[in-house]
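Structure tokens please, single chain.
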Amino acid sequence: MIVDWGKEGKDEELRMEVKEEHKALLKSLGLDDEDFDRFDGKLVRYEHDNKRGVRIYDPYYETSYNEYIGIDGWSAWSDENDTFMSDILKGTHEEVRRKELSNPRANQEEISEALEKKFGKKTDNDPE
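Here you go.
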């Protein structure tokens, strides 16, 4: 069943009503209260099924949903507990942070000095 949505506001902005009884299921997918404002019934919407739970249509990742969204734009159903993306990226953020801390970036002055050392002194004249 696709949930009904309607037009609200002065500028006829599209808004999809997120039913209270579906919010807990949507939050189990990783969505938060702010994401519910992004449901417009077109580019961001959801479906509810009594057996399978909910799934969202969010092909452009407009919400905070961070799991895999298929080529058709739909997420997995909430009863599938899909953690494919989280599983393959597990530890990645910590590894990136660790490498950034172990290899601090050079500041602009150090970069300038290294370039001068390699290519010679600065010239005041630009070649024409």
